[in-house]
Amino acid sequence: MVYTDLHYFGCLSYYHVFAAHEQIVFDSKTAFSKMSFKNRMVIATAQGPLHLTIPIVGGRDQKTPMNAIQIAYDSPWRTQHYKAIYINYKRAPYFEYYVDSLEQLYSIEYLYLNDFLLATQNWTKVHLKAKWFIDIANEQTSIQQSLKWLDPMKPNNFETSTNQFKYQQVFDSSTGFIQNACILDALFALGGKQVLAMIS
């Protein structure tokens, strides 16, 4: 079992840990922390890494529990994120297999950040064809905080991961390989079964 935080389409290092376990339990009440992957992911573009951030009500300088964090919709972030993904990955070998369901995912207006993040985790599990079971910790879940696994990778150091997964990215020729980008990057390049085999 892995007990950890919910991430927005986490990096490969995040899913590498998941692949070695049968159960993933997400902490629903951990405090929100700015400059984390709780509301941010990194995609690869022709200009290099691009950080996509989900805006939250009250701004990022808060310590509100994750299960109380609401998504802000005063800007069209869903359209912007989907457009960025589409533009940068439309030439990826496996993108066409996932684009329709991904567009559907971004069409839903979730009130709470946790609910959207859980939807992205379930979407990823399905398309990786992963066997792990996903659960959310609640009042009845007895897990010691000392057992919690925290991915050491942050938006400002994600490329320093020691897990050197290599594959052909869309913009390799112009940017070089971008290490440890979000799971979507590898999924669109290799397809779910191959990504799962690579990170296992």
Report a brief summary of the structure:
This protein has 200 residues and is α/β, with parallel strands linked by helices. Helix content is 34%, strand content 12%. The protein has a 3-stranded parallel β-sheet with strand order 1-2-5, with no helix packed on it.
Task: Characterise the protein shown here.
The protein is 34% helix and 12% strand. The protein is an alpha/beta fold. It has one domain. It has a 3-stranded parallel beta sheet, with no helix packed on it. Helix 6 packs across helix 7 (192-199). The model has no long low-confidence stretch (mean pLDDT 94).
Strand proportion, as a percent range, falls in: 5-15%
User: Shape from CA axes?
Assistant: globular
Helix content: 25-40%
Instruction: Give the overall pLDDT as a whole number.
Output: 94
Count the beta strands: 5
How are the strands of the largest sheet arranged? 1-2-5
Radius of gyration over all CA atoms, rounded: 16 Å
Roughly how many Å apart are the termini?
15 Å
Low-pLDDT residue intervals, each spanning 5 or more residues: none
Structural class: alpha/beta
Question: What's the assembly state of these chains?
Answer: single chain
Order of helices and strands: EHEEEHHHEHHH
- The domain tally reads 1
Number of contiguous helices:
7
Biggest β-sheet description = 3 strands, parallel
Describe the secondary-structure layout.
Layout: E1 2-4, H1 12-18, E2 23-26, E3 40-45, E4 48-53, H2 77-89, H3 95-107, H4 113-128, E5 133-136, H5 172-175, H6 183-190, H7 192-199
Parallel strand pairs: 1-2, 2-5
Antiparallel strand pairs: 3-4
Helix pairs in contact: 2-3, 3-4, 6-7
